[in-house]
């Protein structure tokens, strides 16, 4: 499902996703957010795409300490989110050889929270008023998953 990023997929990175959100699904009833553009791709960042449907960004990757922030943004709400998450995590833990994946999630995103927790992500804390988005401050949860926990849940 996932493929490497090429410049022909640039338009996939230019829509109304929430910045640095661990899991963002564009739903037909979603509020319209200001379009976002991924401006800076650092050398240690990794982007994978499902053409015309989704992108996965591993950002602020630290290969020495073996962890990365993950952002998964999905345009097509009909796609299998769990399969895409599993493929993304398999890439992170087995190809990039990372030990820990973490990310942020707006606290009132209950469906996304349930999906992430169903595959092993744990709530590691909360950051009050961390994101100003759509004219409102939002609290964010910090969710994390280690390679060991991922392996134990997927044997």
Rg: 15 Å
By CATH's scheme, which homologous superfamily applies? Gcn5-related N-acetyltransferase (GNAT)
Percent in strands: 35-45%
> Within the CATH hierarchy, at the fold level, what is the topology?
Aminopeptidase
| End-to-end separation | 21 Å
Number of spatially distinct domains? 1
Overall strand count: 8
What structural class do you assign from the helix and strand content? alpha+beta
Unreliably modeled segments: 29-35
Mean pLDDT: 80
Quaternary structure state of the chains depicted: single chain
Q: Can you characterise this structure?
A:
This protein is of the alpha+beta class. It has one domain (3-153): Aminopeptidase (3-Layer(aba) Sandwich), CATH 3.40.630. The protein is 20% helix and 37% strand. It has three helices and eight strands. Strands 1, 2, 3, 4, 5, 6, 7 and 8 form an eight-stranded mixed β-sheet that branches. The longest helix is centred in the middle third of the chain and has 15 residues, at 81-95. The radius of gyration is 15 Å and the shape is globular. One of its GO terms (molecular function) is transferase activity. It is an enzyme of class 2 (transferase). It comes from Virgibacillus tibetensis.
